[in-house]
Design brief:
Layout (H helix, E strand, L loop, with lengths): L4 E10 L2 E11 L4 E5 L6 H8 L7 E6 L2 E6 L5 E3 L2 H8 L2 E4 L11 H11 L5 H14 L15 H13 L5 E5 L7 H16 L4 E4 L3 H7 L2 E6 L2 E6 L1 H6 L4 H8 L4
Helix pairs in contact: 3-4, 3-5, 5-6
């Protein structure tokens, strides 16, 4: 079975700093992968490369059978263009830690804008789906509100609905609760757990270890631009093999 997304031997540097050093990761359909590790370990950069916000310096990236980036034969990476790139972008959704909603648009418009403008889908279909997602996210009655009228937790749930409205094959989360206080965090994590129960394919960068244990099929521990260890939550969180993993996790148990 072809993986939903596959990134191989990924390398990325900013100036003289190597941030990704030969990372390979595949995610299967319906799988939930939690990526954990210290700040500066390369987690967010990996996500940004997988979602085409950053370009690779080396390696390859594919969505299903669509190769998005690969070696050009001259030591650099060649990316697809035009319709192929548009198709690749349509296969994933991304939820940022800072919401990134359009401040002048209502909840309904924030969710419906991309399906209407980018995917050119019929308005009745898009608005029906948006209303369904608004209810699913516990936001009924907020359709006409703008982001500044919502709590942080509500804004993040709008971000999740906006990503889902594009019907992606995989959903990425970059520290989805880091900007929220503990009281609002629980509501957002509950929504993500619900998506996991529906077998939504997801990659989640998170610092919430108990959440990662509950929701993930696989946990990937990154540090220093490499994958140090990966496996089931029981293996990585309960019986880590690598000393660096154990040292990192010890800080969450004290």
């Amino acid at each position: 079975m072809t993986a939903v997304v596959s990134i191989k031997d990924a390398r990325k540097a900013f100036g003289d700093t190597e941030v990704l050093r030969g990372i390979s990761l595949e995610v299967e359909r319906g799988e939930v992968v939690a990526v954990i590790g210290p700040s500066g370990g390369g987690k967010s950069t990996l996500l940004r490369c997988m979602t085409l916000l950053e370009t690779l310096d080396g390696g390859s990236l594919a969505y299903g059978g669509l190769e998005v980036a690969g070696p050009d034969g001259a030591g650099a990476v060649r990316y697809v263009k035009g319709d192929a790139l548009k198709e690749a972008r349509g296969r994933f959704g991304l939820v940022f830690q800072s919401y990134n909603l359009f401040p002048h648009m209502t909840v309904m418009r924030n969710i419906a804008d991309a399906p209407l403008r980018v995917q050119k889908r019929p308005r009745p279909e898009v608005e029906a789906r948006a209303r369904e997602l608004i209810e699913k996210m516990g936001l009924s009655g907020c359709e006409g509100k703008v982001p500044c009228q919502l709590s942080g937790g509500q804004q993040q749930r709008v971000s999740i609905a906006r990503a889902l409205a594009l019907d992606p094959q995989i959903l990425y989360f970059d520290e989805p609760t880091s900007a929220l206080d503990p009281e609002l965090t629980a509501g957002v994590l509950s929504v993500i757990k619900g998506l996991a129960a529906e077998h939504m394919t997801m990659v989640i960068v998170t610092h919430e270890m108990s959440f990662a244990r509950d929701v993930a099929d696989r946990i990937v521990f990154m540090d220093g631009g490499v994958i140090v260890e990966q496996g089931s939550p029981e293996q990585v969180l309960g019986a880590a093999k690598q000393e660096r993993t154990r040292a990192f996790l010890a800080g969450y148990r004290t």
